[in-house]
Amino acid sequence: MALLVIAVSLTPLILISSIILYQFHVSYHEKVLTHLEEVVLKHRQNIDSFLDEKLADIRVMARTFKLEQLRDETFLQGKLATLQGEHGGVFVDLGLVNEAGLQIAYAGAFKLGRARYTEADWFKKAMKSQHIKSRACSNRGG
Prior knowledge:
- The protein has 142 residues and is mainly α.
- It has a domain at 65-142.
- It is built from four helices and two strands.
- A two-stranded antiparallel sheet has the order 1-2.
- The longest helix has 63 residues, at 2-64.
């Protein structure tokens, strides 16, 4: 009889506790996911803003200097040094690629010389747009 009374008394407590624990778990999980989505969105906005600022630096250079100046690799090396001085290690190299995909000037640590980018995906995209943002940081094709 005592066990029956204890079982009847504890059953609602266990049932309600289980329901509350489940609801808490679901609510907490949703809150964590929402927070992570917000953090990812803010990081994405910060990265896009950073890249837009660096793109603006490149656009200023393209509009300020004549094509003949930018073709001169010594001149381009000087501009790269200036950018690196202002922005640290953000700018690794600079290259001038013509509409045929041939690199006509290069400044930087890599020995790219007269690389041909005609078949590179980033070049094809760049020919259709004013600018592109490439995620290919580790390969020298983008």
